[in-house]
Amino acid sequence: MFIDTHAHLTSREFDADRDEVIARASDTGVTSIVNPATGLEDSRRAVELAHRQEGVYACVGVHPHEAAGAGDDVLRGVEELCTEAKVVALGEIGLDFHSESPPRDVQERVFRAQLGIAARTNLPVVIHTRDAMEETVRIVREALESFPAWRSQAATPFSRFPAPKGVFHCFPGDPAQAWDLINLGFAVSLPGIVTFKNAGNAAGVAREVSSEHLLLETDSPYLAPVPHRGTRNEPSRLPLIAAKIAELQHLSVDDIARATSYGAYTMFGIGSPGVPVFVYALKNSLYINLTIRCNADCVFCDRKGEAVIKGHNLRIEREPDAREVIDAIGDPVRYEEIVFCGYGEPTIRLDVLKEVAAWVKSRGGKTRLNTDGHGNVINKRNIVPELVGLIDAVSISLNSTDPVQYGELMRVDGKKFFPAMVEFAREAVRLLPRVVLTIVDMNDVDSEKARRFVEGEIGATFFSRPFF
Ligand code: SF4
Ligand SMILES: [Zn+2]
Hints:
Layout: E1 2-4, H1 18-27, E2 30-35, H2 40-52, E3 56-60, H3 72-81, E4 87-96, H4 104-121, E5 125-130, H5 133-146, E6 166-168, H6 175-183, E7 186-190, H7 201-208, E8 214-216, H8 238-249, H9 253-268, E9 279-282, E10 285-288, E11 308-309, E12 312-313, H10 322-329, E13 338-340, H11 350-362, E14 367-371, H12 375-379, H13 384-387, E15 393-397, H14 403-410, H15 414-431, E16 434-441, H16 447-458, E17 461-466
Helix pairs in contact: 2-3, 8-9, 10-11, 14-15
This protein binds iron/sulfur cluster and zinc ion.
């Protein structure tokens, strides 16, 4: 299931076959489409289309190209439309200094006024920016300061973060600029440009911005992806864009579809958070979610927040037994690995873990355990010998080589748990085929020291993963 967050279905180009275009989109899995507006009349058309077509949602607003005609009456009209059902954002609004018409001061006035409407109606914004990134970001920052309550509520009932404030569509900037906007509470989206040979910044952004902060868009009828470049674009082409982004992110198309659909849910309220799952696929591996309980409380972990990973909802309300997990796995050799890993510590449920792992091994599958390495403390015995023959690889969170910092990051007693984790790691190196120790790459953590410690003193493989 894909969500096209930017398609101008109300544009003239679709007058002859609008309903067929929407039906074709649905046939390719594009079940929801957000229609941005360019002016007041187009906003009315967008609302009307959204009322008529189940999977279509409307934005209302004045595009910077149309800013010259946007007097108070027009802006009032836009604001009135915000209460209509299925209006999900103000958009598209912003600045376009590619040509000097309308004049910059006119565009800026209309942009500011519409950010004010978004704040008053608590809607997100869909931003167009062209040759005007610096000015756009300055005005957005002003709005964030002027309207501290705007989208300040939690994105979902469990979220620890405020609702996203909007999306920079057809994002023209580089990855560093994208991350600055993400830190302000925005997402970015990339149209078919990402499939072009000369994709420029778009390819870098698609590679480096995690899928949690990306939305999918076609920008129909413009910017058709390869191999349709130069023709009228339509939402049914969205999977081509998703496939390219998946390739650049080293994920599957399903992963990109799921992660970006979840992003559209938190942004626009389209769709649902999905039911909590005991097993979940990412790329070529299947992950087993045995528990959401953990003896630690890491500062970077979202266990007590949404507990969603790439659109999979891991917030289980009860823990599965071995039979349920085995039934959910199906045939384990379909996957590269069966990984015990959720937003909780799997060794808390050692018996179930061992039973499922034994079954996977008996069917010829490969197993991995992702753990905080506290299993011996949790189970009050050395559990590593019990994993021999059941677990092929273990990933242990090292987090830091400094016991004090370790304790602070995991919010545990570092003096007790750091040595326990190291002992577990040494024992795993002695008895199990493959052991990896990981850190989350954060400013204060000395990753080179960690690498030397892991490779030199523990004799395991070192892995550093980015902190999003
Ligand atoms: S050990 Fe893992 S599951 Fe537990 S709080 Fe830390 S990151 Fe989350
Ligand atoms: Zn547009």
